[in-house]
Design a protein that fits this description.
By secondary structure, the protein is α+β, with helices and mostly antiparallel strands. It has helices at 4-21, 112-118, 120-125; strands at residues 33-42, 48-59, 65-76, 79-86, 90-93, 97-108, 127-138, 143-154. Strand 3 and strand 4 form a beta hairpin.
């Protein structure tokens, strides 16, 4: 039989358990942050080039969490030219740590004229807007993440 002292203890403990439970599953309370920090173009041949975008990902939680479905769209003047994909399907983000993760893709030169012809005014002004718009998920696909970085490339003048 439960006495009144035990009932009071349970009543006091219940709000504490609810507060601790609000941290989410297994101590995950905040989503990771994702920021595009670098873009490199290389591996040129007659048909295209390899593009690598490096992301800085920070896990603010006290536990390791998975990062899944990591991808990004490379856009020139708002027009999509390339889908960048992660090198592996899932990354394990260690507790309270920052990692650099690459996204890669191959852009074909045939796909560029259409996007660049629409951006002719920007080419004349000498600045070309380039953006990386990406998504990922965590918590087995339950928490969607979105990130975006936009910059301007200056035209090479002779």
């Amino acid at each position: 039989m439960v006495n009144s002292l035990q009932k009071r203890g349970l009543l006091l403990a219940l709000p504490l358990l609810l507060l601790v439970g609000c941290a989410g599953p297994a101590g995950v309370s905040r989503p990771p942050t994702i920021e595009a920090v670098d873009m490199r173009v290389g591996g040129f041949d007659r048909e295209g080039a390899q593009v690598t975008v490096t992301l800085r990902v920070f896990n603010p939680n006290g536990v390791t969490i998975p990062l899944e479905n990591l991808q990004a769209d490379l856009r020139i003047e708002g027009h999509s030219v390339l889908l960048l994909m992660a090198n592996q399907p899932v990354y394990q983000l260690s507790a309270q740590s920052t990692v650099s993760l690459p996204l890669t893709g191959r852009v074909t030169f045939k796909s560029l004229p259409d996007a660049l012809s629409r951006a002719s005014l920007s080419l004349v002004s000498g600045l070309l807007e380039v953006s990386v718009v990406g998504t990922a998920t965590t918590a087995n696909g339950l928490i969607p993440l979105r990130y975006e970085k936009t910059g301007r490339l200056e035209a090479i003048r002779r």
